[in-house]
Prior knowledge:
Number of strands: 0
Strand content: under 5%
Distance between the termini: 32 Å
Oligomer: single chain
Number of domains: 1
Helix content: over 70%
Low-confidence stretches: none
Amino acid sequence: MTTTYNRLAGQNIERLSALSDGVFAFAMTLLVVDLRTPLGDAIHSEHGLLQALGAMGPQVISYLMSFVTLGIFWNGQEAQFGQFARGNRHLTWIHLAFLFFVTLLPFSTRLLAEYISYRTALLFVLEQHSAARRGALCQLVLCALRRVAEGRRDGRGG
Length: 158
């Protein structure tokens, strides 16, 4: 008897978790790499340095918001993975879609920092965050459905 790809794909939850950890670590690192120190040629005093650092306010705020958002998403998906004994291809593809939006976060953070006064930049960031939240919600629903199905198989009802 042969085993089909669909029955084998995505079974190892630890591999999906490891991929996720790597993506989150890379995205969080890109956020801070994007922060640049003020240009040395333009700074000639303490006051000039303080003004230049103050001008970086939108970048620092965007960085902080994005880092916290990534931290919340990472913490949530780790909690969800703790509920699974094994994965499946549906969970894998839902999670890959979620990670796609996670990888966009450094770009949207930079876009917001550069164009903070433009509504389009803010709408792009809000939509991107919303899409990532929808991906996390899909994972949560899949987790709940699986727990109900496991309860029915064990005779516990659901």
